[in-house]
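Narrative summary of target 7.
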Amino acid sequence: MKRRVVVTGLGAVTPIGNTVPEFWSSIREGRVGIGEITRFDTTEYKVKLAAEVKDFKAGERMDVKASKRMEAFSQYAVAAAKEAFADAGIDMEQEDAFRAGVTVGSGIGSLSTVESEYSKILAGKVNRVNPLMVPRMISNMAAGNISIQLGLRGKCTNVVTACASGTHCIGDAFRAIQYDDADIMLAGGAESCICPTGVAGFHALTALSTAADPLRASIPFDQERQGFVLGEGAGVVVLEELEHARKRGARIYAELAGYGATGDAYHITSPCEDGSGAAKAMELAMNEAGIAPSQVDYINAHGTSTHHNDLFETKAIRAAFKEAADQVVVNSTKSMIGHLLGAAGGVEFIVCVKSIEESFIHQTMGTVTPGEGCDLNYAIGAPVEKKIAYALSNSLGFGGHNASVLVRAYEGQ
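Modeled conformation, tokenized:
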């Protein structure tokens, strides 16, 4: 039998708050964290806006010496993981370290490291390349650094599925606990690639918004949407086997009840046009939880503010929910924090958990008039206050990667 899995800790670094309390307060206020790019000169770029993490001081969140050996995505991951771990109240002296693990992903790793070190090579300074270039750059180092900082010696992995990385990591950690590979898992994602190469690359794909108004740049499902806004940060949660959590008297935020993962087998950047791949992922998550679509109160959509994603995800929700699609509330956190790529799923999972806890569904900020074919309830104009029994979080990644996780309110049974 599968073991039950609950959420006992939350940690986040985002463009609208560097801890979960700060982030959630900003979510409730409807704060948008998008602004002018400050990391580099954008004179030659059509894209001027991004959602940057602000006022983050790594040395205040972890060992100073260790932080200097990490790139930003790893720093964000460690900071979020330490917050989640402290929130969960776990004492590793009372735990078997080999039963506690990490599955935290990053879609890209550090493009900034590649840029800075390759510039040395181009300048004929091959011998000046940083000896830590590779361990600073590679995407698995978010998970590796968390494991080192917290002394977690169990399963330590990194799922890389582009924008679905964080959600797939949560799903894989869920499975590890369900099938007795671990009792505790830290799971989620981290990303930081607001740099010349990152912006140029995504813009060349025509994926990024070139809007000048920060409040109308990331507008999921809106008829004037034109692309996503690049964001950065990390979202990490503590997942725990139910009886293990009960035994140590842990506070339980919610229960992770279902997980679905599929591939579109269709296109390297566009979701399947009929939404069938994403629909199947949602169906699998609901089936595992043993519930009907009519029981889901809220969907935190992938909702990138690109034409194809928003239209095809809407079709996917209609395919999976059928007549219940008109009753479920859908929103997109990317309307406030942009697209955190591999970190998106981790942060949006936290939003689902907090929404259940506080019976609050945030407004899809900036969105005014839904585009053609976008015909669901997108929480436009005002937040929605309602009791939430089940919340679903979707992530869709380049390459056709689809992931859905289903969270339910924990009733103490």
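The first strand starts at residue 5 and ends at 13.
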